[in-house]
C-alpha cells in the first residue's frame, strides 16, 4: 500500500528548506549526546538561545499548525529517512510516532540537526516505493 502523507508537498519543501537554513547557521551548536543533563535540557536551551531567529519561528509555527497527527507523520518520516524503518514498515513507524507523541515532539523535531536530511531521504524512499 503506498504511503500518503497528510502534509502538502509545498509544506514539506518549506519545512525542509527552513530546517536546513536554521541548522546551517554557525551559532547553532548541539552538544554531544551523553553530556550531563537530559537531551530535553539542551534542546530547550538551543531553542531558547535562538528564540528570536525568524527561521526557527517559521518552522515552529508551521509544525504547531500541523497538529499531533501530522507531527507524528514527520517523526515517522524521520525514522524512514534514518533507516530505522523501511517504507514497507510505515504503519509501524507511524504507530510508534503516535505512541511517542507529546507536546515536546515539536522541540524534538526542531533540535534534531539532521531532520531536514532525514525528511528528504524519507520522502525519496517513499517516492521510489510508489
Q: Can you describe this structure in just a few lines?
A:
The protein is mostly helical. The chain is built from 7 helices and no strands.
Question: What do these coordinates show?
Answer:
Helices cover 68% and strands 0% of the residues. The chain has one domain (9-27, 34-129). The protein is an all-alpha fold.
Keywords:
single chain, mainly alpha, globular, 130 residues
Write the layout of secondary structure elements.
Blueprint: H1 9-24, H2 39-49, H3 54-66, H4 68-82, H5 90-100, H6 105-111, H7 115-129
Detail the poorly predicted runs: 33-37
Q: How many β-strand stretches?
A: 0
Element order: H for helix, E for strand: HHHHHHH
* Total domain count: 1
**Global shape:** globular
Q: What percent of residues adopt helix (DSSP H or I)?
A: 55-70%
Distance between the termini: 8 Å
How large is the share of residues in beta strands?
Answer: under 5%
- Figure out the total of helices: 7
Largest sheet: none
Overall pLDDT confidence: 83
**What structural class is derived from the secondary structure elements?**
mainly alpha
Backbone CA Rg: 14 Å
